Amino acid sequence: MKLINDIESIKDKDALVEKLIEIEIELDHINWHYKSLKKDLKRLFKLN
Question: Burial letters for 22-48: b for 16+ Cβ neighbours within 10 Å, e otherwise?
């Protein structure tokens, strides 16, 4: 729960907003990779 502890420890509103934006960007990046992998797997299974 390091992420939650990091977020809870931030007292400055601007720093908290910045941290949440960073998290959102990372989640978007992970989601992009997930969708790409899913698409590649669909193509692979269609070949077999």
Answer: eeeeeeeeeeeeeeeeeeeeeeeeeee
Contact 22, 31 (CB under 8 A): no
Q: What is the pLDDT of residues 27-45, one digit of tens each?
A: 999 999 999 999 999 999 9
Cα 35 to Cα 17, 38, 39, 41, 48, distances in angstroms: 27, 5, 6, 10, 20
* Structure tokens, 37: 């992998």
The DSSP line for 24-44 is HHHHHHHHHHHHHHHHHHHHH
pLDDT given for residue 47 in this prediction: 77
